[in-house]
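Tutorial handout. Part one gives the primary structure; part two gives the three-dimensional structure as tokens.
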Amino acid sequence: MSDYHAFEQGGDNFLFFSRSARLYQLSEIASRMLSELRPPQPGLAHSPPPGLPPRHLSAGEAPLYAELCDLLHQELGVPLPVSRDPQTKPGENRFQTFSIYLAQNCNMACCYCWNCGGTFGKPGHLMGEKSAKRAITLILDLVQESNADKIFVNFYGGEPLLDFPILTKITLELLQHEAQLGKNFYLTLDTNGTLLEGPVAQFLARYFTQIGVSLDGNQRIHDIQRPGKYGESTWQLIVNNMKAFPNPKLLGIRATLTAFSDSYLETFRQLSTLGVSRIQLEYCHEPGYHKNPIFEKLNVPVERQLTELREFIDYYVDYISHYQETRDIPLASNVLDNITRIRRGSRFTKPCGAGTNTLAINSRGEIFPCIAFVDRDDFAMGKAGVDCGLSLHDTLSGFEVDGQLPCHSCWLRYDCAGGCYATHYDMTGNPRHPHPHYCESMKGRAEVYFYALTQMLNKCPWHLQRDPNSDPS
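Part two.
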């Protein structure tokens, strides 16, 4: 079991302790001393670290060595985190987040689309009145017994705005029950932005709390990666729709980076000129680990990802450090989310609530643990309107990271908490078995985010006071 991790980033040395989530910056001498200590053996985490041979220590180094040993004693004595699943009363549940695959169809032909435009290789399908009514009833029934006060509903696809009349019906019906249920519904949408205009835009601006628009950087890159269904250019249409949107504060941009994209930093710079305050950048990844020649060419090697992320962090922290007010600064939302999460120091023993506080409903009314498991028949939990209970796949229940190979020996286990079930299933065929490439990427990113946290604390700590998960005003 590895309960601490030493690493170097940006010319500085760091020491992270898994149990307490504490991060220390080390001097060169302390880092050398630590590297010469033999790590504690499994089962002996509380034993004193072995001493260094006297010839390694000068008179001035002895106090530092004693201080380092005391630190290890203290940190390795912290109890292991335990599961913090909230208790529910009889007849109560924890469901809080619902994703609706409104349209399993799309009007675009993106080169890296992981779910084939929402179709998963099947004939396209829209939800329609009957399935929508059943989905509404399911959500309301579950919400009534939920111990959550805030309920989040996301419309997804494909392109969900292809089924706008049904989106309208579900939205108004859910909001109509807020007072009766004593709950607040927060409605969000992921869209390609091509239909974000006219009455559609007016409706969304009135009732929705967040709208994510996919845009992959400048016009040249975007139109190559995200053409229309018949190869037509889409960038200018999407940008025009965003500029005309009645409430731009609701809009955020999500960009997918491929091997042919500009760098992380350059893409951010391009998108930050569009007047949107929330920008999320993610690297393309192949959902299944079979050798797909398309994704082999599109995927960005982990080494390049980490280099670009470090370059971005150095630029971004220096950029925002000149501003005391964060309101008008483009927010790199996924980066700041990770930094804020690390700073909170929360410890997790399981990755998510797929199937326990999160559900996804496809356009036919079939129920799945989350959007990433939609249309995977082995993980179907039931069907809206059919009173047979919700059946969660065995591999998605009872998970604890300390009892799971190879996670139990990983220094990042209480941050990653075992990783994404669906990604593991795609890459290895088992939701509980992460692929080594996945782990390599997660650990590399964590080191960069730890470095980013120290940079922000040193240069602009006021930017960490803004909660990226707060409800948009």
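Part three, for discussion. Residues 4-80 form one domain. Residues 41-48, 468-473 have pLDDT under 50 and may be disordered.
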